[in-house]
Amino acid sequence: MTVSETGRNPRILAIVNQKGGVGKTTTAVNLATALAAVKKKVLLIDFDPQGNASTGFGIDRSRREITSYDLILNDVPLEEIFQETAVPGLFIVPSTIDLSGAEIEMVSLMRREFRLKKALEGKTAVFDYILIDCPPSLGLLTINVLVAADAVLIPLQCEFYALEGLSHLMRTIDLVRTNLNAELAVQGIVLTMYDRRNKFTEQIECDVRSYFGEQVYGVVIPRNVRMSEAPSHGKPSLIYDMRCAGSQAYIQLASELLKRERQLKKEMTAA
Questions:
Q1: Taking each helix axis from N to C terminus, what angle separates 160-179 and 140-148, rounded to the nearest 10 degrees?
Q2: 164-187 pLDDT, tens per residue?
Q3: Measuring CA to CA, which of 48, 84, 142, 212 is 20 to 30 A from 154?
Q4: Is 154 helix (H, G, I), strand (E, B) or coil?
Q5: Rounded to the nearest 10 degrees, what angle do helices 24-37 and 245-270 cross at?
Q6: DSSP3 helix / strand / coil % (the chain, rounded to 5)
Q7: CA 156, CA 22: separation in Å to the nearest integer?
Q8: Where are the alpha helices (DSSP H) in 57-159?
Q9: Is the pTM value of this prediction over 0.70?
């Protein structure tokens, strides 16, 4: 498939949390898969030097010769980098550890915060959604994603320290909105690694919902053994075991996301 000018404006969603181990990559991989399953054309950009999203789709290291590093630093066109996954309609820009050096290399560049935005402009019309899996930090790589994105999706683990990190992330989003990307919005917060046996989990959910209201998705993503097994097989959990509780939750998340997107489109049209 080649990129062509179809007039379509894809929604670019940054999947962000500076805290590691909160289900960020799991959300990116499985939400992308769920959207593709309902016939959306989806591009997932692995922007984390760990390359876990690439591994989650079974992209072997030998197939990562051209990566997201080349997209932002070597001016390699997007259409020469993305590759098919085993999921119909879903494509990926892979990542390797080389991307970890990009922050240092970009420091001296003009408009360094806009490298990703420039790389994507005018080259994404074939897609309905572009999901970007960010690194677990708020450095220059993540800032590039926030500048390029239309909205932010925040996976939030149900624990106290995650709440502390969320306030820091929200401040960063506000700063980016004020100085670099006035249109950046919070698409939603999704509660991950939810354990109904833990009363403290319920308390965290209550606190988050009371503070952020409708920004928090109704569906929660449970802790699930089958979902944690899937990456070792190079498959999204929706492919590995569609019937498990985690996979079903991501199907519901995609449905809820699309409902929000339709409502947003109606509001923009009415305005």
A1: 60
A2: 778 889 999 999 999 999 999 999
A3: 84
A4: strand
A5: 70
A6: 50, 15, 35
A7: 6
A8: 68-73, 102-106, 115-120, 140-148
A9: yes
